[in-house]
């Protein structure tokens, strides 16, 4: 009896000592204002929902102002994924960009059982070895939301499916700071990609530290100085 109680006490102490895996990010819908170099181009709606036994994260971007409206810019992204050991992993990713004069498509299909990832960029097709925990570029947002929900901070090493290969990326989860949101500001956790090259490209996003860790603002600055921003307009 004493040995049984001792084993039970040890098991209980281990259960208390080991952190539980964070619950999956809660379903949400949020709409963002899209800007290029400060000028409003359109709106984007992000949605996360269950998809049978899996999950689906989608983004719909529409040009509503200026040349983006005239050209009929439309960008649709869809990530079907699952949670493995409490973290998201891509199953299938689709990207489609359409305007009145051209279109672009790319995709990533992850087949863990076959040990391969198939990457398509227009007519180009590449195969890469399966990497556990692989993410597509859109699903990065959910992965970072999950990391924050799980209490992780500092450097986060992630494997991301690019256009023709799988690349290792490092993201840094920092402290809360004021996030400019037009005429006001909110407190958000600053997260940025740490690049090893000297290209000058930067990617920063701020997640709400309280409201389900929704992205408040996302900013991508290219090496030529061009900046694309997404600013939260409304939840739901």
Index terms:
mainly beta; 3 helices
Number of strands: 15
Largest sheet: 15 strands, mixed
Helix content: 10-25%
Strand order of the largest sheet: 8-7-6-5-4-3-2-1-15-14-13-12-11-10-9
Report the total helices.
3
Terminal CA distance: 55 Å
Q: Name the shape in a single word.
A: globular
SSE class: mainly beta
State the order of secondary-structure elements, H for helix, E for strand: HEEEHEEEEEEHEEEEEE
Oligomer: single chain
Average pLDDT rating: 89
Stretches with pLDDT under 50, minimum 5 residues: 1-21
Strand content: over 45%
Query: Radius of gyration, rounded?
Result: 20 Å
Compact overview of the structure:
This protein is mainly beta. The protein is 13% helix and 58% strand.
